[in-house]
Design brief:
The complex is a heterodimer. Chain A is an all-alpha fold. Chain A is 77% helix and 2% strand. In chain A, α3 packs parallel to α14 and α13 runs antiparallel to α18. Chain B has a single domain, classed as Helix Hairpins (Orthogonal Bundle), CATH 1.10.287. Classes of the chains: A mainly alpha, B mainly alpha.
């Protein structure tokens, strides 16, 4: 059973998508049940694979029995297992939350929604577990295609935002593919481990330099690294809340994972990758500052959160750029923390929008009085975003700051501190209005908006609890999972 | 670089030219359909790049006439990039399909596909 876990993680949602699409034609409600069951099974497989990988080392699965480098191989090492678990659990949480949203769709559309949602999940899980560069491209595009469709469900503006994302995202995917082509031309193989073994000694080749530039730029667009983040704010603002929470929580992180995988596992530290890191560091610093500054200028809460994602992505890449084990620990911990807190924030904002119809900052006046639990979750996640102990966000920023000082890169430490202060300001603007603002008198004859339905509240509160648990048990997360997930130290 | 070199590297020039044409259309064309066509040209550039990677001077198609014959890999062109591109073409078709579906929705909602006009309406 354990031997088949890597393939099950991907095949369950992939095959499930077809089954759910067919079932949805007859029975939308049953299709939703099946989709949730498949997501739960996939999450269980991912968690089991992670546990096995930490205990006994990476799980390898040869597709069709063809051994690499000829065949495609799936590899679940602790890094891939951790990411897969994160993606699968998030997919499940956002799907549970999507209940009231799905109720508003026609039954047939509900089936289609879940089918595409499963495809998105399958694509993201595929990126995480594959050990093949071209296979990664295919999954990258599967997940992107599904995302374009889901993100366009918010009506008028979201369709246009999604189309522009499609153009940029496809161009980015194509650049990545061209980069993979250059690597293939040099090494004659597409298997990540094999490319990594053949590449040393070839770093002087202009084709390798070109490949690195193309792959980094392609993935930077997909992860919305400033200044290539243009698609993100509109897409996050106008899409339906459950989709935004899932996409904002994990999709950009999976692209960041792909970048980490290529830079540190395929190219290896030393050689050409070392020349990329300083450039990435400065770009990431600009991202961390620019994202926070732009978030300050917004009046729509969802836009604040979207620009904040641009800034937080900067932190993660900054960790990659410093490149020491401590910095990578911080970056990976921040991938986890940011996924949880940003999803929690988008779910809370989506709930407020669902109940009050407001997403503008001034519409949040006094809303905490009517929806104490939702705003409580929002406040906890916001504290984590700012980096207040004992929430998870404090610890990942702490690791990053310490790593920046240890590596003698104090400008990066300053960037982290300034950006955190800015995030405190923009999050406080929301919290202040929600808690201290004067709620408007409800129109005569209408009750004030109450707390959200349980199906929406449960995932939001669960995520808020996870934000706190990640803070309290950060040491265990680091020593039992992330410590195993770090790339092998090579030629310094 | 001599003229002979330039010709020998002709496929790289073709790839670069297609990439730039596609990128220009995606950036400069105001009409969404034209942007989509630019994106298709952009993807085609990579397909050309991969297919020419597999070609060798004087090689034959990778079909073994006799099942038991010892294959001389050097005598055949490399089929792997070609099969990869079959997948990439499928990705491109799917992408075009989704893009066209979104374009139909945009046309229904806004009644125009001109980007300047769309942006103007969104500002109002």
């Amino acid at each position: 059973m354990t031997a088949h876990l890597p393939i099950l993680i991907v095949v369950l949602p992939l095959a499930g998508a077809a089954a759910v699409a067919l079932l949805g034609l007859r029975a939308g409600r049953a299709a939703r049940g099946l989709a949730l069951a498949i997501l739960a099974a996939s999450a269980a497989c991912a968690a089991a694979a992670l546990a096995a990988a930490v205990r006994t080392g990476p799980l390898r699965y040869f597709l069709g029995g063809w051994a690499p480098p000829w065949g495609i191989e799936y590899v679940v090492d602790p890094l891939a297992g951790g990411m897969a678990t994160l993606v699968a659990v998030f997919a499940l949480a956002a799907a549970v939350y999507a209940g009231p949203f799905v109720e508003r769709l026609r039954p047939r559309d509900a089936g289609a929604f879940h089918a595409v949602y499963l495809l998105l999940t399958a694509g993201l899980l595929g990126i995480v577990v594959t050990g093949d560069l071209f296979n990664l491209y295919v999954f990258l595009e599967i997940s992107s295609l599904a995302a374009y469709g889901l993100l366009a469900l918010g009506g008028g503006r979201s369709v246009l935002a999604s189309f522009r994302y499609l153009l940029l995202g496809t161009a980015a995917g194509t650049l990545y593919l061209l980069g993979v082509g250059c690597l293939y031309a040099v090494t004659g193989t597409l298997n990540m481990a094999d490319v990594g073994a053949r590449l040393p000694g070839q770093f002087d080749s202009p084709a390798v330099t070109m490949a690195i530039v193309l792959i980094v730029v392609g993935l930077a667009v997909k992860m919305a690294l400033f200044p290539l983040h243009g698609w993100l704010p509109d897409v996050y603002t106008y899409a339906p809340a459950p989709v935004t929470a899932f996409v904002a929580g994990v999709m950009t992180k999976v692209s960041a994972y792909a970048l980490l995988r290529v830079l540190f596992f395929v190219l290896g530290l030393g050689g050409a990758a070392s020349d990329v890191l300083p450039v990435l560091g400065w770009v990431a610093s600009a991202a961390a500052l620019a994202g926070s500054v732009m978030a300050l200028a917004q009046t729509d809460v969802r836009r604040i959160l979207a620009y904040s994602s641009v800034g937080q992505m900067g932190y993660i890449v900054l960790g990659f750029a410093i490149g020491t084990p401590l910095a990578l620990t911080g970056a990976l911990l921040h991938v986890l923390n940011h996924a949880v807190m940003k999803a929690c924030l988008f779910l809370s904002a989506g709930t407020v929008l669902y109940r009050t119809g407001e997403s503008q900052l001034h519409g949040y006046e006094g809303v905490a009085r009517h929806m104490p639990l939702t705003l409580g979750a929002f406040a906890i996640a916001a504290a984590s975003l700012v980096g207040l102990p004992p929430t998870g966000g404090f610890f990942s920023k702490w690791y990053l700051l310490t790593a920046a000082f240890d590596a003698g890169r104090w400008p990066f430490a300053v960037v982290l501190a300034v950006s955190s202060l800015l995030s405190a300001v923009y999050m406080f603007r929301v919290i202040e209005r929600a808690y201290l603002g004067e709620a408007p008198e409800p129109a005569p004859g209408t009750a004030p908006p109450g707390e959200a339905p349980a199906g929406m509240l449960a995932p939001t509160l669960a995520l808020a609890a996870v934000v706190l648990l990640l803070g309290i048990f950060n040491e265990q997360v680091v020593s039992h999972v992330i410590a195993f997930a770090l790339p092998p130290a090579r030629g310094h | 670089m001599t003229a002979a070199d330039a010709i020998a590297h002709g496929h790289y020039w073709l790839t670069a030219a297609l990439l730039l044409i596609g990128l220009y259309a995606m950036l400069a064309a105001p009409n969404l359909i034209r942007k989509l066509m630019g994106m298709n040209v952009f993807m085609t550039a990579v397909i050309v790049f991969f297919i020419t990677l597999g070609a060798k001077t004087g090689s034959s198609p990778p079909v073994l006439p006799d099942h038991h014959a010892q294959a001389q890999a050097a005598a055949y062109s490399n089929p792997l990039p070609h099969t990869l591109m079959l997948t990439a073409i499928v990705v491109g078709v799917a992408m075009t399909g989704v893009a066209l579906a979104l374009i139909i929705r945009i046309q229904q909602r806004f009644g125009t596909l001109d980007e300047r006009e769309l942006l103007r309406r969104l500002r109002e």
